[in-house]
Amino acid sequence: MRVVNVSLGDRSYPIHIGPGLLATLGRECARLKLGTRCAVITDTNVGKRCAKTALRSLTRAGFAPVLITVPAGETAKSLKNVQTCYDRLAAHRLERKSFIVALGGGVVGDLAGFVAATYLRGIDFVQVPTTLLAQVDSSVGGKVGVNLKAGKNLVGAFYQPRLVLADLTTLATLPEREFRAGLAEVIKYGIIYDAKLFARLERDLPRRRRRQTQPLAEVVARCCAIKAEVVGQDETESGLRAILNFGHTIGHAIENISGYGKYLHGEAISIGQVAAAELSAAQSGLPQRDVARIENLFRAAGLPVTMKLNPAARKKIFAAMRLDKKVSGGEIKFVLARKIGRVVWGQRVAEAAVNAALDKVSR
Ligand code: NAD
Ligand code: GLY
Fold this sequence. Notes:
Elements: E1 2-6, E2 13-18, H1 25-31, E3 37-43, H2 44-60, E4 64-70, H3 79-91, E5 99-104, H4 106-118, E6 124-129, H5 132-138, E7 143-148, E8 151-158, E9 163-167, H6 176-193, H7 195-209, H8 213-233, H9 248-257, H10 265-283, H11 288-300, H12 311-323, E10 327-328, E11 331-339, E12 342-348, H13 351-360
Parallel strand pairs: 2-9, 3-4, 3-5, 5-6, 6-9
Antiparallel strand pairs: 1-2, 7-8, 10-11, 11-12
Helix pairs in contact: 1-2, 3-4, 5-6, 5-8, 6-7, 6-10, 9-10, 9-12, 10-11, 10-13
Bound molecules: nicotinamide-adenine-dinucleotide (NAD) and glycine.
Residues 43, 45-46, 49, 72-74, 77, 104-108, 110, 130-131, 133-134, 137-138, 141, 143, 152-153, 170-171, 173-174, 178, 181, 265 line the site of nicotinamide-adenine-dinucleotide.
């Protein structure tokens, strides 16, 4: 097992990465001296596969868990489901010392984390991410929240978990498309922070796509270490943390205009990152050969790098970008790359330049 620490003073926590870790859930929660009553929040897909092991592990360690299952998919990240969870927690009489286990992908992690942040003004929670995307990104760093009709993640909090258990065995049942979507965040870490990771992925992405435990453990641990370093320096995104949003301004807008369903988050940010690379070539000196390497790696991961963009869709993309949380003082700011492994954040870009970058990803 690999352990990566997120250093945030008295809110620090470890990320455990390895095969078969779900069975250690109860023991690890006992080690943290969490209260007896708890809730495991999961979705229908993950519940079928993982809830039994999680509940057994908790019960054996002396905990009294209740299982709350929400529908699978992005639309589950809603205030309606937050309310459903609150009602179940209250019915099971969870108290201040009780805790929540988020068992699932980023949707469950964001939803359950938000419920934990707000129920009784905040109770402990443990992340058990079961998608690649959640293991390398969403379960770490404490961003929790739900969507509004007006946009993604518009209601939320910064609320750190007590522990992250990334069980690589759970990834075996992840649909291929979801696995590829997770690779979009993995590649992002290479672009924003680690040119060596990027080059390694260029060399052996096929091996990693076969989900062999050893190479997967290595890559998940490296991504978590990068995220931990960034979050450790800037927990609430007043500066550096913004680099984690590379390609996300356009990516979130793509998700929004296509109604959160057509493109998975990872697919949308794949197109968004290629657009951001094109924008970087025009604005921040990213060499054209780096743009080509970025586009090729997303293609090699089996991710989309272009989309149909008629004038009406473009208009909607700009409207959605203006609503994004990253807008400040009415200005859309971008993370731009100078070279692979090095980015700058908070960059003002004229609408015409964004349009030109969108031309490059439009087919
Ligand atoms: P997801 O949670 O919807 O999971 C993808 C699908 O895979 C779902 O259908 C789920 O039921 C299924 N699934 C999950 N684990 C499985 C397994 N082991 N076997 C079989 N099926 C499984 O999607 P995701 O890609 O994990 O997360 C996307 C969400 O994460 C988005 O809402 C995004 O906004 C959020 N996110 C949050 C952060 C953050 O910092 N909080 C960062 C990145 C993304
Ligand atoms: N995924 C972006 C962040 O955690 O800040």
